[in-house]
Amino acid sequence: MPDNITKYSESFKIRANEVNQEKKATLGAICSLFQEVAVNHALKLNFDITQLNEQNLTWVLHRMDINIDRFPDWRETIIIETWPAAGDALRAYRDYRILDASGKQIGCCLSYWMMMNLNTRRPTRMPKEVLDMRLKEFDHVLPVKTDRVKPFENPDTESTFTVRNSDLDMNNHVNNARYVEWMLESLEIEQKNKITTLDVMFMKESVAGDTVISQCKSTANDSYKHQLKNQNGDTLLIAKSG
Question: Which residues pair with 115 in a beta bridge?
C-alpha cells in the first residue's frame, strides 16, 4: 500500500463522440470519465480491478450522486480530481470534482462502491488494505445519502434495448455509463440536455442477450424518475434527475 495517499487528478479534452447536439459533454460521457480517473487512481494505490481479480474480488459501483453547474464544451480541457473517502466495511465512497482550465469547479459527484466476490456475485467485506486507504481529512463534495431512490409504476414513456457484447465492461456486465445513457433515452432531446442533477442507484447487473426496458416518469419542477428493468421484471437501475 502506498505510504502517501492523496488526491489524484487527470486532465481530459472533450472529444466529438462525448458531446450532444449542443456540443456539450453528455452525462454518460462524464460518468465514463469518472470511471477512468477512478480506476487509474486505484492502480496507483495498488488496488485496481486486475489486482482485486487475483483475490476473486472486484469493485462494483452502487450509487452516484452528480451535480453539474456547467457541462464542458467540445474540445474544452477539464480536470477531474478524485479521492477515496471514509466508509465502512461494506461500502466505500469516492469523491470527484470537475474543474475547468482556470481551476473553477463546474461539477461534482459522490459515488458509493461495494466489493463483489466474483464466485458468488454478491457483495463482500473489504480487505483491511482497502479500509486503510481512505482519506478522512477532506469533506465530501455532497452530503452522504441514507435514503433510497424508490421504484415507480405507470411510466410516462419507455424504450427497449437488447444488451450487446459491446455493452459489457471488464466485469462482463453492462457498463454503468451505458446504463445512464439508456436511462435517459426515454426523454426528449431538449429534456435530456437540461438535466444537471442525477442520483442513480445501480441495483443489478445485466449481461449480453438481456432485454432492458428504460422507463421514465415526470415529477414536479422538470424533474424525472427513471428505472431500468430486464425481461424478468428485475430492477437494474433506479434514479431521479432534474
Answer: 59, 124
DSSP state for residue 18 in the 8-state scheme = G
Q: What is the pLDDT of residues 86-131, one digit of tens each?
A: 677 778 899 999 999 999 999 999 999 988 888 888 888 887 777 7
Burial code of 130-159, b = ≥16 C-beta within 10 A, e = fewer?
Answer: beebbeeeeeebbeeeeeebeeeeebeeeb
Q: Does pTM top 0.85 for this prediction?
A: yes
The three grid cell numbers given for residue 76, joined into one nine-digit string: 474544452
DSSP single-letter state for residue 16? G
pLDDT tens profile 35-66: 999 999 988 887 777 778 888 888 889 999 99
Q: Kindly give, in sequence order, each residue whose CB lies less than 8 Å from that of residue 106, ignoring residues fewer than 6 positions away.
A: 68, 69, 70, 71, 72, 78, 98, 99, 100
C-alpha to C-alpha distance for 128 and 31, rounded to whole angstroms: 28
**Whether 107 contacts 70, CB under 8 Å:** yes
CA angle 231, 28, 224 (to 5 degrees): 65
